[in-house]
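[Automated response] Your request has been received and processed.

Submitted sequence:
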Amino acid sequence: MVRILPRVQRFAYALTGNLDQGDDLAQEACARALARINQWQPGTRLDSWMFRITHNIWLDRLRASKVRGEVVDIAAMHNLSGVDGRDVMEHRQTLATVMEGVEKLPPEQKVLIALVCIEGLSYKDTAKIVDVPIGTVMSRLARARKALHQLVNRESGGGPIAGSPIAGSKG
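Generated structure:
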């Protein structure tokens, strides 16, 4: 579990869009996994099991936030700082634009972008984690990529982002 923790944290951050909330989500997923370790079947992929737990907790939080309303961490917004260097700034702007685009996606598309494009999981593994048929993963991911591409191009005013994993596919 310790070995896959960085991947679980990246996934949690991708889902929440916030480092602190991502860390909280990853920590809760680890605690839940340890409390229910008897439910994990040896011989199966621990990372997939952890991603599924993380995804389920995130969905529970989304449902709860609809009842309570969205919480915004204002302190995190003041933490933005400039760094010298044109390339660094351009990359940061591109990343910010992509993350804003990901945040605008529906939850069922956001999770697929996180699992396939960020974590590099196969469609098959992703389908197991989110508990939908592989064809559904493929069609939702295609719509997510198209929507994200349009959002990023609208925000940046340019063409496609070179080397972007969003344009790729994973079978």
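Summary generated for your ticket: The chain has eight helices and no strands. The chain has two domains: 1-80, 84-171.
If you did not submit this request, please reply to this message.
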